Amino acid sequence: MTTGPEAPFEHGGPTIHRPASGGTDPQTPFEGWVPGPDVPLAEVIDRAFDYRGNVTVDLRDGGAVSGYLFNRDARARDPFVQMFDAAGDGPITIRYAEIRTIRFTGKDTAAGNSYAAWLERKAAAQAEGRPTPQR
Amino acid sequence: MWTVASYVLGQRLRGRTRYPLVLMLEPLFRCNLACAGCGKIQYPAQILKKHLTVEQCLAAVEECGAPMVSIPGGEPLMYPDISRLVKELVARKKYVYLCTNAILLKEKLEAGWFTPSKYLSFSIHMDGPRDAHDEAVCRDGVYDVAVAAIREAVRRGFRVTTNSTLFDGTDAPRMRDFFDDMMELGVEGMMVSPGYSYTKAPDQEHFLRRQRSFELFRTMLERPKPRWKFNQSPLFLRFLMGKQDFECTPWGNPTYNLFGWQRPCYLLQEGYAATFKELIDDTAWERYGRRSGNDKCRDCMVHCGHEPSAVDYTFSSWRGFRDTVVAAVTGRL
Ligand code: SF4
Ligand code: SF4
After folding, report:
1. Which ligand 1 atom sits closest to the C-alpha of B101?
2. Which of A68, A71, B18, B195 is the one with CA 20 to 30 A from A106?
3. What pLDDT does residue A117 have?
4. How far apart are CA B103 and CA B145, in angstroms?
């Protein structure tokens, strides 16, 4: 075996094409969640940041923004979230101070896609003589 | 090798302790597969439809300054401007690794989207032998499509490497046969990395824990065959085998995508910085890596966090340099 000294790229080369990305919380079904008044806003924002679906941010002035919340910075001098709206426009920056609550209105795109579930579907299809389901 | 060596030495001479080695440039999240271990593609439709412009990509490359640019995704061959992006990067003498599942590769090669260059390598996603790969990508027939694409790319004079993410249950002896098969196809080098558990990837059960990783990589890489070529630091391979320890250096492979500069690494998404400088200067790096005690990093051994550490060790100490040379020359890990 060599690690390819004849290839100029062997160190710190390319990436592995299996990019899984991480959140902070265990997978919990948040789809449809409307947080109660007892849940601190910072926690609701953290959950929304980890959520892989659209949310609706209800504002203190009575307005609302629906879309994907992709960033939050609680350590900033004036903490904020950032979103792309439902049409994909953005980024839209909203200060924590403007937010009343966040509703988890969109579908959780990570839910129901497990490897185990695919294996089960595949085994069931094979047992019934159907073609293998593709993802 | 010299490109990397002179770059790393230059960074160290300038006193930079946190420098990027490979920019992970994700122009889009869209993909034509939906592998269970992948956490990059679970987004609402309006996000999947978006992509970076070539100008945004080039600005990020400029800002970061890393000598190598890896383009994962999503599937980069679904990025409509991939041909222009690659041309621009090659013109800038960046070493480009286009990481693809290869479903569209043959078609794009036939359409003349790419020109062979020492700066361009296709890094083909291959998670093992036919049945293992098709199972990992959750679609039958993908292995054969990828093999045909590798043959075509090699035939046309392109540089081709493979990358394999390994999960619990990987059959080590069969992986050794797989390495033979890949070398037989004419690939220039292979890459391996353990899959790692973080919560947004839908498949939580099959990621490898640290001890299991050591066992798997030891069995797989012990007495490596002389014909095997790995496009990786031998010290990183030793790390995977549990023979060497490295702390994570997540800034080594910074990630840029539609959301900005991802903190802290390619895997974890804890927020986004607006600029590369902000990423480097304002990320609480002490919270990451195994020694930090962060639960999310506890079992992590992935390439993007630890290979830059191995490379830095190689070029920042005589011992690291000696160990690397010995492993490269003798083929012993
Ligand atoms: S091919 Fe790559 S980006 Fe696409 S789903 Fe699989 S791992 Fe994810
Ligand atoms: S140890 Fe792994 S998860 Fe933690 S920062 Fe490093 S690469 Fe990311």
Report:
1. 1
2. B195
3. 64
4. 6
Output the pLDDT for position A119: 64
Asked, as a colleague might, if the bond just before B73 is cis with ω within 30 of 0, I would say: no
Beta bridge partners of B256: B25, B261
Ligand 2 centroid from CA A99, angstroms:
31
Domain spans of chain B?
Answer: 19-330
Q: How confident is the model at residue A126 (pLDDT cuts 50, 70, 90)?
A: confident
| ipTM computed for the complex | 0.89
The DSSP bridge pattern shows strands A55-59 and A64-73 to be antiparallel
Report in angstroms the alpha-carbon separations of A117 from A30, B58, B130, B313: 20, 40, 20, 42
Please identify, in words, the CATH class of the domain defined by B19-330. Answer: alpha beta
- CB of A105 less than 8 A from some CB of B: no
Q: How far is A30 from chain B (nearest CA, A)?
A: 13
Give the residue from A15, A51, A73 with the most B CB atoms within 10 Å of its CB, the best one to mutate.
Answer: A15
Judged against a pLDDT cut of 70, whether residue A26 lies above it is answered with no
**Chain B contact present for A11, CB below 8 A:** yes
Q: Mind telling me how many Å the CA of A56 is from chain B's nearest CA?
A: 13
Complete edge-to-edge strand list for the sheet that includes strand B255-257: B189-194, B159-166, B120-125, B95-100, B68-71, B22-25, B255-257, B260-264, B269-273
The whole-angstrom separation of Cα B280 and Cα B20 is 10
> By the 8 A CB rule, do B221 and B240 touch?
yes
A21 to B269: CB separation less than 8 angstroms, yes or no: yes
Q: Is the pLDDT of residue A135 over 80?
A: no
B115 and B84 in contact (C-beta within 8 Å)? no
pTM: 0.89
Averaged over B195-200, what is the pLDDT?
59
Q: Which residues pair with A72 in a beta bridge?
A: A81
| B233 lies within 8 A of chain A by CB | yes
What local confidence, expressed as pLDDT, does residue A16 receive? 46
Give the gap in angstroms from C-alpha B111 to the nearest C-alpha of chain A: 24
Reduced to 3 states (helix: H, G, I; strand: E, B; else coil), residue B89 is helix
> Ligand 2, closest atom to CA A22?
3
